[in-house]
Design a protein that fits this description.
Layout: H1 13-24, E1 44-45, E2 51-53, E3 75-79, E4 83-89, E5 103-106, E6 117-118, E7 122-129, E8 134-136, E9 153-154, E10 177-183, E11 186-188, E12 202-208, E13 217-218, E14 234-239, E15 242-244, E16 257-262, E17 268-274, E18 280-284, E19 289-293, E20 298-302, E21 306-311, E22 320-324, E23 330-333, H2 335-338, H3 351-356, E24 359-360, E25 364-370, E26 389-391, E27 396-399, E28 407-410, H4 417-420, E29 422-425, E30 430-433, E31 437-440, E32 452-455, E33 465-467, E34 474-476, E35 481-483, E36 492-493, E37 495-497, E38 508-510, H5 512-515
């Protein structure tokens, strides 16, 4: 029973009766008790529409030969989601709802559609498409027919075939005339009003017994020549000579020179070490920049001879140590205080020498100018240098020392040297742990896919990796990228992930010493 209280505190039976009548006559009041029924499919909310055709365009069979695409019969097409719900309104909702241009409000049939109901005896607004009729001419709804106009494409001419006359270059008494042909074929057929295929698909020419076919022959390749640069990426070439010249009708000579890149290693090298392991730096060169958290020493190679290193978070027990490595040498300055400290003068502040020795003890930008006369050298390799693989914004890649063992993130530490010593062989793509097992992407194409340790197998595509020092990504050659999805957690997850150069979970560092096949002993 519903009562309405009047202004004098009493109840009005007439008002109550009116409300009951209104409720009783609401279109879905009679079926309110059936709410438990399974909901029927409902329109989507504010769709980004796609289209669907209700017929197929076609050429009448008797007209196919002589009629172009502009004379075909288009098919009518509509929104696939040609209705959508919007908001919650009093009944009837079509009196209140405002639809997008080209759409009109209609009754949502809330008496029969439980999903169209909302609030207290309210219903959702329902809009249906009533815009202009659209047509599909073969390229999609309202997309015209231009995509069907395809130019014909043909192959290059083949080599000339054998002459129908025999080959006898010493026969001066009898000259026999013959013929030989060459052909080409259609790769892409002409469509619509596109460019037609050429009529000539075969050519014939005259030949004789004295015009024998001799194919070009070449010698073996020479050794590769000297690289054009010592580092930073150069070019080198090799050649081969012609040993037999082709005749008029013989096959042409292949390429006589090949070129390839060489000495791609970076020219200038340095290392950075954080005293607390929490220091953050921003390394800037002409064409790129990179931020690092110095949870362990970083060995970095660049091609710019002048770089800047910004120490971002100086604080208690936070200092950065800079060191030239791999033969590099140069000068260090701290412009922010260089003049104030009178660096270079006889009475300079002792802090000037600390900077020159690589002690970055203050926040700010440090300038590094490399000696251009001294380039990359591997002669100063130190067997004690780390060969750990680490995330620039996390900790180290760590492998459980057993077949099927877990690949995980772990704090970079010497106590786990066996678990964190890796060798990357670019020729095979293997990333091998100290115990001989290889990093294996069991689900190499699956986002979140499993990575574990497994017996090294040359033909196993799960173990073919490619490392980019530019992006820091370790990518499965036949899949997606390696990611430390829990990059700062001890025992954190390592998994496959869709490649994203901006993801901090995919910015790995492998030192040059690992790439060259060296590792901790």
């Amino acid at each position: 029973m519903v009562f309405l209280r009047t202004s004098n505190g009493g109840t009005s039976s007439a008002a109550a009766v009116s409300l009951l009548l209104a409720v009783a006559h609401h279109p879905w009041a009679a079926v309110a008790a059936e709410e438990a029924e399974a909901p029927t499919p409902q329109p989507t909310q504010d769709p980004t529409p796609t289209y669907w055709p209700i017929c197929h365009y076609w050429y009448p069979e008797e007209m196919q030969a002589e009629h172009s695409i502009t004379e075909t019969y288009p098919c009518r097409c509509y929104y696939e989601d040609h209705t959508y719900y919007k908001g919650c309104y009093a009944f009837p909702s079509e009196w209140y709802v405002s639809c997008k241009k080209g759409w009109t409000a209609i009754g949502p049939m809330s008496a029969y559609e439980p999903n169209a109901r909302c609030g207290f005896l309210g219903e959702k607004g329902l809009c249906t498409y009533t815009g202009p009729q659209l047509h599909d001419y073969g390229c999609g709804c309202d997309e015209g027919s231009e995509c069907l106009n395809v130019d014909c494409e043909v192959t290059q001419w083949s080599d000339w075939g054998d002459c129908t006359a025999w080959c006898d270059p010493d026969s001066n008494d009898q000259l026999v005339i013959g013929s030989q042909t060459r052909t080409r074929s259609v790769m892409v057929a002409q469509g619509g009003t596109g460019e037609a295929c050429p009529e000539e698909m075969e050519e014939t020419r005259q030949c004789s017994t004295q015009e024998c076919q001799v194919d070009c022959e070449v010698a073996s390749w020479s050794e590769w020549g000297r690289c054009s640069t010592e580092c930073g990426g150069g070019m080198q070439s090799r050649t081969r000579a012609v040993t037999v010249q082709r005749s008029t009708y013989g096959a042409s000579c292949p390429d006589l020179e090949e070129r390839r890149t060489c000495n791609e290693q970076k020219c200038y090298w340095f290392s950075l070490r954080g005293m607390s392991g929490k220091e953050e730096v921003h390394v800037m060169e002409t064409s790129q920049s990179q931020e690092y958290t110095l949870s362990m020493p970083k060995t970095i190679g660049l091609n710019s001879n002048h770089i800047q290193i910004k120490f971002l978070n100086d604080g208690t027990n936070k200092d950065v140590v800079f060191k030239f490595v791999k033969g590099s040498k140069g000068d260090l300055t701290y412009p922010k205080k260089w003049d104030d400290w009178k660096c270079g003068a006889s009475n300079e502040n002792k802090r000037c020498e600390l900077v020159r020795k690589g002690k970055f003890n203050w926040s700010g930008i440090y300038h590094v100018i490399f000696d251009q006369s001294i380039k990359y050298s591997d002669d100063d390799f130190d067997e004690s240098e780390s060969t750990q693989i680490f995330l620039n914004h996390g900790i180290c890649l760590d492998g459980t020392l057993s077949k099927g063992g877990k690949a995980q993130m772990w704090r970079c530490e010497s106590a786990r040297q066996a678990n964190q010593s890796w060798t990357y062989d670019a020729s095979t793509g293997h990333i091998k742990a100290s115990n001989g097992f290889c990093l294996d992407a069991k689900q190499r194409n699956t986002h979140g896919g499993k990575v574990h340790m497994w017996t090294c197998q040359t033909n196993n595509k799960n173990q073919h990796w490619d490392y980019s020092a530019t992006t820091g990504q370790i990518k499965a050659v036949h899949g997606i990228c390696l990611a430390g999805t829990e990059r700062a957690k001890i025992g954190g997850k390592v998994a496959m992930s869709n490649c994203d150069t901006k993801s901090k979970n995919q910015q790995w560092t492998i030192s040059q010493d690992v790439i060259s096949g060296r590792r901790l002993r």
